[in-house]
Task: structure prediction
Amino acid sequence: MNPNENKYSLSPDKWVDMYADYLFNYAVVRVNNEAIAKDLVQETFFAGLKSAKNFEGKSTERTWLVSILKRKVIDYYRKINSKKGQAEVKVNFYDSGDNEGSWLEERVPQSWNNQAEQQIENQELKSQIDRCIDALPEKYGMVFRMKTIQEFETEEICKELDITPSNLWVIIHRARTQLRNCMEKNWFNK
Result:
């Protein structure tokens, strides 16, 4: 093989069939929203088409598309964490009745700056999160703590628990879903 020759080449006409499901699963675990994950995959395919001339063939198509998707996920989080992005996020206050509607997040009344009250509330929130994590199935709680709290690398967790990376991300996704349900039930709706 000539050293200047690409090992891999692109086949954009096969991307949807070959990679859409994988990329969607990758994205949905990271953004926890199916509609946004679908949009990010579409943006990834579009960006791939636009930058196909830059593909050097040093990696597989899938690896290259995943790297584009990673940047799309990062851009998504940057946008929602920027002032402009926050202004676009609407907060629902009432689901029905005379006061039905939503406000832009930046116009939501801010809490009073009472540090002692905030510290108490933060401690109560931490306690509730701990109770919700403790209520998870044992393996889910262990994987969730190792990945998100103790910040172990994926490879370390997989080796320690003898699981695959895809199994790890399924467990993390399920743990987050159960934690969200627990927190909504026991903290946000009290």
